[in-house]
Design goal:
Low-confidence stretches: 8-26
Largest sheet: 5 strands, antiparallel
CATH class of the largest domain: Mainly Beta
Order of helices and strands: EEHEEEEEEEEEEEEEEEE
Distance between the termini: 30 Å
Helix content: under 10%
CATH architecture of the largest domain: Roll
Shape: globular
Number of helices: 1
Strand content: 35-45%
Number of strands: 18
CATH superfamily of the largest domain: SH3 Domains
Length: about 180
């Protein structure tokens, strides 16, 4: 029997409160690989939302307008820049802004990008299918090989091909 994992969230994020040129501002930063001046960690890198609610702002201070309100712990983000206690983040859809660092975690999560994505028993194309996941399901990364990641979704552990995930780089290995 194959189990279907469905999104049980009301929403991953609430519609934007303001319209910004965020995507254009960050387009050049996506391809650069550097080290954050504050943390010394790689830029870009992936993190997840620690809090169950967080705001992405237009700038790196609480006085800036809110671009987005995120309402689900575990959402994966890509960090594109650092400014003091603030991180410039984006989602799989390319939305985001500046988020306070305490709302973020180094715990790696991924977003399933395609409906009916199989969670496999082994990292092989012909392996047994344990479950099928809908798009937008969030999974916790257990480890990643060159083409596959083992993730945990609710009570299921399984291997997913990286082509069906957002939150890990194509050549990234996580042990």
């Amino acid at each position: 029997m194959i189990v279907f994992l469905k999104v049980l969230l009301s929403a991953i994020f609430i519609a934007g409160i303001t319209s910004t040129t965020y995507s254009q501002e960050t387009e050049d930063r996506k391809e650069e690989t550097s080290v954050g001046e504050v943390t010394g960690l790689a830029i870009p890198r992936y993190v997840s939302m620690k809090a169950s609610r967080g705001y992405a702002r237009k700038g790196s201070h609480r006085n800036y307008a809110v671009n987005w309100e995120f309402t689900k712990a575990g959402i994966p983000f890509r960090v594109l820049d650092e400014d003091g206690s603030w991180r410039l983040i984006e989602t799989q859809g390319g939305v985001g802004g500046w988020m306070y660092h305490a709302l973020l975690s180094g715990k790696r999560t991924v977003l399933i990008t395609n409906d009916n994505t199989p969670l496999m028993a082994l990292p092989e194309e012909n392996s047994k299918i344990l479950a099928l996941a809908e798009a937008k399901i969030i999974g916790t990364v257990l480890k990643c090989e060159l083409h596959w990641c083992e993730i945990e979704v609710k009570t299921f552990n399984g291997w997913v091909h990286k082509n069906n995930l957002w939150g890990v780089d194509p050549d990234e290995v996580i042990e």
